Batch of 3 targets.
Target 1
Amino acid sequence: VNIAVFGTGVVGRTIAAKLVSLGHIVIIGTRDVNATLDRVTPDPQGTPPFRDWQQQHPQVQLDTFKTAAAHGAVIINATSGGSSIDALTQAGAENLNGKIVIDVANPLDFSQGMPPSLFVSNTDSLAERIQRAFPETRVVKTLNTMRANLMVDPQQLAGGDHTVFVSGNDTDAKAQVTTWLKDWFGWSDVIDLGDITTARGTEMLLPIWLRLWGALQTPQFNFKVVR
Amino acid sequence: VNIAVFGTGVVGRTIAAKLVSLGHIVIIGTRDVNATLDRVTPDPQGTPPFRDWQQQHPQVQLDTFKTAAAHGAVIINATSGGSSIDALTQAGAENLNGKIVIDVANPLDFSQGMPPSLFVSNTDSLAERIQRAFPETRVVKTLNTMRANLMVDPQQLAGGDHTVFVSGNDTDAKAQVTTWLKDWFGWSDVIDLGDITTARGTEMLLPIWLRLWGALQTPQFNFKVVR
């Protein structure tokens, strides 16, 4: 499958690396290709510069949001939540319409310090904003409730015995994404929560997720819905 | 232990019945004792009138919030979130100060229809409001993330292999409540999330909890933090 991954951070890199290892053709989209490649120092969180990472993953291409989206039969949004709408706008609706947009971003607001709060929640969500801004896309929210390495390799933890959620208005798109979650990444417990408004529920998991990271002193955990 | 349970709904009743079965002396607090006892028809959710329930649980006493709080060495707040501050105000700070207040309520806002949203979230929480309003109490938020019968009997589900959280500013109070969760109810996995602001995280679990109830067609489930 031709895939666009939006975002050059840890989440985008982790997903892109996994997908090319499966034989997919992946273009990572970024705002400014030269600016992304010009960075030579780790970011404040210690993430190595993109070009260092890309040298170890030469099959992953880097291009603009627009070129990546035109390439992708599916677009995976792994940008920071605050820049997601802008990234998709730069991609252009003509390169998105009719396609599945897998939204893994979270609306984290770091402006008030740590831990971050959410810049949209409760009566709206980032996924809903994306769906409203690009009504001809088929937005499926998923994978936003665990760290990146578990997104693409849930077997790393408890043999994969934990849960991932999908939210979206398009039943066929959710079924397709569910198949991909199982076939690409090895997820076994995928719960369809309902329409895109149910993404409020998964985005609002972030506050407890962030505090669990602090309490457990590791991000290597996930929620399982026991029933 | 002498215990006050605030709230005459399913949660308050379930907790009170469990506690008297363990030999504790429990007074349920209510706004207006006569009004509570005068109800003879089920509420809109089908909950039977309190007096029918009390006939089957004669050891559970019913009295005002004030009398219940004066009796209790610990107060369990199982009122609806929207009336919690008012209930505690009626109880009187003089009957609460120095005591542990176990807050199991959720700030559900039904005014916009179903599923409810939260009337406080993200940058504040009901538990924090209670702690600020009654600074001499020791508020511990817990048990607000699963249905009532699982609160008091987690073994009903998967042999108890799922998680309950505690949040609060007072370390000793959290340790005491953790002991009660284990000894009274049989919880085995209790995670201390940190100070009372971490109650934002557990209260914000309600939106996904409500949607899971819809998706799974049963409220008999709970979250397990797999790590």
Target 2
Amino acid sequence: MGDRERLVDDLRERLAATDFYRWAGIELLDASPGEARVAMTIEPHHLNIQGLVHGGLVATIADTAMGLAVRTRLEPGRRHVTIQLGVSFLSPAAPGTVVARGRVVRAGRQVAFAESEVVDATGKLLAKAQATIAVTADRGA
Amino acid sequence: MGDRERLVDDLRERLAATDFYRWAGIELLDASPGEARVAMTIEPHHLNIQGLVHGGLVATIADTAMGLAVRTRLEPGRRHVTIQLGVSFLSPAAPGTVVARGRVVRAGRQVAFAESEVVDATGKLLAKAQATIAVTADRGA
Amino acid sequence: MGDRERLVDDLRERLAATDFYRWAGIELLDASPGEARVAMTIEPHHLNIQGLVHGGLVATIADTAMGLAVRTRLEPGRRHVTIQLGVSFLSPAAPGTVVARGRVVRAGRQVAFAESEVVDATGKLLAKAQATIAVTADRGA
Amino acid sequence: MGDRERLVDDLRERLAATDFYRWAGIELLDASPGEARVAMTIEPHHLNIQGLVHGGLVATIADTAMGLAVRTRLEPGRRHVTIQLGVSFLSPAAPGTVVARGRVVRAGRQVAFAESEVVDATGKLLAKAQATIAVTADRGA
């Protein structure tokens, strides 16, 4: 198994280990060092009163993609926590599949910066996000 | 029925009209002109792998509180859309009830600014958020 | 000399030790543990083509107030660096004196969060800002 | 004179029409539809007490580049005002020339979104910024 497959497997296991991602309908598509792509299949209960995807879910999928991207860069025994999140909502998201690509902009010893683009199934850009992520010792480590 | 009760009823109806808020477990606590408070009961499937509330949900409840706060200031036939959202995560959110208070900072004709504080059941400050919200003509109006 | 006067003196010395603040016209008004207030006298060369204070200067004065507020909470041998800054521009700033109050929202060991309100001479709210600030060992320490 | 030269000339005239940019040492390098590049020569009075470029100036140059980028897309009689600015400070900026490239992410009728990268003379990435920009009728129009 190559490094990339090991990376993807590790992240898939993390998502599978918690009910949150199943509940939210978020799954990992792909990952490589410094990047991760996740998808969310939009269900009727994800829509706001205007029939558009709730912005909080767009923030959720973007934050997930950025966190996993940073995760690919962490040494064992380190963990990441988003401390600041910014999202610009460029276009309303209609039902369908939404994909977020997260990318590490800079990974320091204690702080990492990441950014994300969220697109719909046609590739249309729905949102851009940025995260400031603290990197600390794992509690259990 | 007083103005405030009418306001609260109107917002409750909006939340009830969409499955999203029931699915997310978000309900309105109170509202007054320029303010809204919403609560979310944290369930096991809201937690991330570290046993803490996923930051995307904190963003979701803060955005909801701010949107409803702006809603209390809109004239009929106008609608609001969050175009930029910023969240600072101050303390990790453990299971329990999480409450977000949204407040209008400035409501202009085309743009409104709002802010939100998210606290846990003990009143501990979990997050602060800011939103830039576009105000436009209602599509159906 | 009381603790508060010592705090104010220490911050005044910091501002005086660098040409930047004199050049920018920024001076300390007051400080207490977790807070700092700075003022900037708007000159014609601070205005943009529309005759309003350039937003970058509003960001500068807000960031200065927040940095100094965090500074009041640092132990000796520690320094602060803003790593993320967000500013909402609520009203255009006309010539006159502009005052920014910075306040620590949460001061952790490695990360601090601060916020700031910028007002004009009449007390009108011009901008609100938030900063995520890294706290590290002083290089010279 | 080609369209691009006309664009650059128009922006240069705007910068020359106000003392702010001369005072701040900011000049236009280049522009094309949806993009603008500006440079700032760092002088000793631009440095903070740690000998690094004050973050407020990094915000200023990034905001200038984004505003001019949006400007290239405006129809006559329209003007732009930054309403929300976010800056991530990735690396400290040492003395030398600092260049910001601004780029329109989406230009709507009433709101535009832009982003900027700030680099030093060696091409090292110092900061990334995002702006939400209101587009309105020109006051004098």
Target 3
Amino acid sequence: MFIPRLSAKPMFPIVFLNGKYLDKSVATLHVSDLSILRGFGIFDYFRFMAGKPRFLADHLDRFYTSAELMGMDCPIDREELAAVVHTLIDRNDVPAGGIRFVMTGGYSENGYQPTAPNLLAVAYPFKPAPAEQFQAGCRVLLHQYERQLPRVKTTDYIEGIRLLPELKRRNADYPLYVDRDDQVRESDRSNFFIVRDGVLITPIDDILLGVTRKHLLRLAHELGIPTEERAVSKAELLAADEAILASSTKGAMPIAQINGQAIGDGNPGPMTHRLMEAWPAYGAALIAS
Amino acid sequence: MFIPRLSAKPMFPIVFLNGKYLDKSVATLHVSDLSILRGFGIFDYFRFMAGKPRFLADHLDRFYTSAELMGMDCPIDREELAAVVHTLIDRNDVPAGGIRFVMTGGYSENGYQPTAPNLLAVAYPFKPAPAEQFQAGCRVLLHQYERQLPRVKTTDYIEGIRLLPELKRRNADYPLYVDRDDQVRESDRSNFFIVRDGVLITPIDDILLGVTRKHLLRLAHELGIPTEERAVSKAELLAADEAILASSTKGAMPIAQINGQAIGDGNPGPMTHRLMEAWPAYGAALIAS
């Protein structure tokens, strides 16, 4: 068997795979798995803090919705999967990190027909984005692309990964996908918002419905900030007062530049600052008991 | 480690994985592989007969082209990979079957950045499509979908696999993908041709350039059949005299029905028969020495 080049001592050595808790070094899938042969899989990812998962109910909702839209049956139910999360946190005995669920099409003898899914849950250390991206804002690159099955958190990140060298070459941190009608949809692993005349605006159609997106809208509501969920064109994005990326790993992150052009005055704006400042306490109040 | 529910005694027990020849039962990838986490991988597939691979040079060309377009470096060169094919055939000691190469984004500690690819080659028994589909023709279902990176043989078959239950429900054998401009592109694992007024026509843009497609065009040329490579609209397909699916596993297969509507008189037509009859000898003459 081939052992990957992981750190010598992983911080979270215990993973869940198909009903068992295993040492990460021996957590493998047979090469007949449909994720390997056919890219057929879904996942979800969330953070845990103080030993408790954040927004767990939302992530479970989305994971089971993804499964349904893919025609997959999760081998364990929602309560059992929640219990896996708590067991993983307990057994790994580290208070904070991230957890990923992955469910694949299973071991397929003919290499195409799905079988009983393989279900995996892995805990990771949480590595925040570079502080500079929060302080000065990040740089994004517009790229024409439409995620297939945008409502499903599939494991398909072919385009995002393929773009990594181009992002580097063009001094950008993240892509922002624009569809054929010049509507801006989402980043590879984040949603986005703009601020225009004091209103916080984010797309709703043809995107992954991010959990951070949902809670940033709620937080805005609590703060008395007006919001709109509707399409945002490339032109409107480029003329916005502020722009923000949103994800579980980022929370709210200011966008400073788009294709090298400054958004607003090129510095994180006042509404972005309000959301960034209120976000940690908002999230901490919603970790699962 | 989890052992998949494979047949007790696989017909081809030896697989190649990262430079080693292993028993299939222990051929696994660690769960940090980017095919599992992010669907990031390419592959190729071809048949071998009388102990020799068919159209091997074409498949090697395409595999290395796929790698280049994905920004991946194959860990071994073309001659070494060809040697793997011959070794796999020898060690498995069965004269005929199919071989699949798979190359993934590798074991990634952060779950996104590609590392050294994992390279796999597996031999399988060859199971032809049902004889009825060759005799009476197959039934296809039109479906709006555009493969991402159509020139790359990625492992992304999310849509084709997700469609399997719908194909069954609608009495269809295969999908046929139609783009937003009503041009018919390709099937999930096959190219397609139509026959109109004695001309064999097949798309060339925005499709996977199939090896069987290429050789059926050459065979047609040898047989004196005029050919065209150009876009085919849905309307033109439905009005065609004959329609054909083409793939390594199928060779040329007549299409009898599209969305329940007969093509031509609903029976395999004369040009399809000519190609089907000439195909085995054409292919046999081009197995690698």
